[in-house]
Each structure stands twice: as structure tokens, then as C-alpha cells.
Specification:
By secondary structure, the protein is mostly helical. It has 15 helices and no strands.
Length: 313
Amino acid sequence: MLALVLSRIAIMVPNVIVLTFLLFTSVTSFLGTPAAIMLGENASPQSIAELNAKLGFDQPILSRYWNWISAALSGDLGRSYSTQQPVAQMIADALPLTLELASWAILIAFLGATLINSATFMKKLVDRLTAAVSIVGITVPNFFLGLLLIYLFSVQLRWLPTTGWSPWSRGAGQHLIHMILPVITLTTFYFSSFTLVYKAEYQSVKGSLYIQAARSKGLSEARISYRHILPNSILPLITYAGLSLGQLVGGAVVTETVFSMPGMGRLLVEAISSRDFPVMLSVGMVIIVGVMILNLVADVTYSLVNPLVRTSA
């Protein structure tokens, strides 16, 4: 297991360096220097040049990247150009909400897709339910589904708050009420795609000889489904879930924006609109490293379930 983790980390490091360099190059090259934006349209070329020199934007790209990444590795993410707050503190305030939203979505989608689709004793109901949800999840974009849920449950029925967020400190009830619609929005797509992957593998395992042997012993269909088919059908879904983590982060960003939640998504959108380079770069780096770490967790989880992976690592 240790060899597997070390080999994955050895692959992660160069990937992180390449991706963060591409991020830094694209942000600082294509969006222009921040001096002109910070000083306004009436700023003189001399004052813009002086501020660029002060911020280090007159240096070669490799030198600027090294200064940024070395400072970031030491914990210094700089200060926001817009608010003058430490970027590390802004990310520390926003990240827990994004992690919570993504965790709820991936957990509910994973458990729902496996447990509900294994309920063979009510096959017709399950098939109709998953087919309806899958159509919505695959065809309707996240932002449109979020707006649709707001209109239905907040505007028309007035059951749930329209937008916003309530921290745990104000009470678990208020917090969870504000999380319901964003979690449903983000979960629907992943439940749909997980269902398609799991169902295909489930049908394959269901026809195996050992399943027929278990059935010939007189075991109930529910016991066969949950004790024998589910554990052997879940491996491809773990791999697929690991590959979906990057999309999950993107979906969380869109969902937070629709529901005006103060997570990493809204922080990134505000940073882009104000050309706040330190925040943009730091949020991008956190997303890159976060996806890498989550993929590592998925690999380790897969190896725990499938011992053949450990022996081949």
C-alpha cells in the first residue's frame, strides 16, 4: 500500500508543476497586467510601469512563476488586489463550504446509485425512478436545474430559502435547509451518471455462475443483490467516481454561483470579474492540488477493495 501511495505521489508532483505553470502563464499573459486595471484608465504609462515593477510583472515569466510558487509553498499566497485581505485567509473561509457541498453530493450520489439500483425486490419502481432522474441529470445543465428548483420550491411553494447560506454556528436546522437545493442540484448529474455505470456492471455480475449458485441455495434476491452482486459491481464505479472529481469541482463552482453561496466558486467568479490575480491563481492552485489529492484517495480506496491493484503497484 505504501508503495502504491508513493508511486502516485511521484506522478502527482510533475503534474502539479506543469498544471500550475500553465495556470500561471494563462492568467498573467492572457488577462494582461493588473497595474493598468488597478490604476484605472487615466493612469500614466510611467505609473503603470512603476506598479508593474513593484508587483514583479516586469520580470521574465519563469522568474515570476518561481517567485509565486515558492511563496505559495511557504504558505504565503499574497494579498487580494481588491480587498487587501490575505488570500490564504479568504480561501480558508471559503473552502469548507465547497468541500461540504461536494462531499454531500458525491456521498449521496454514490450511495444512492448503488443502494437504490440494488433494490431488485422493487425493480419496477427503481427502474422508473432512476430513468426519470437520469434523464433530468444528463440532459439538464446544473445552472438551469438550480434555477428551476429555486422557482419551484422557493418562489412557488415557499418551502426553502431562495439563495444564501447559514453557517453551522447559527443552528444545524438553518444550515441544512440552505444546503438542500444546492445539494440536489449538484447530486442529480452524478447520481445519473453513476447509475448508468453501476447498472451496466450490475447486470454483468448478475449473470455470473457464482450468483446462480447462490440463488440455487435458496438465498433471497435481496441478500444476493446486496451481499454478493453489489460488492463485485462497485469497482468500476469507484474508478469512474475518481475520474469525475474534477467535474465535481466545476459543478460546485457553478452551483455556488447560482445559489449565491460564499464558497470557492463565488470567490473565483468575483476574482475573475475584478482581475484579482493573487486570488485567481491561488484558487486555481487549490483546485488543481485538491483534485490530485482526491484522485489519490480514489486510487487508495480502489486498491483497498481490489487487492490485485496493490500487488501490481
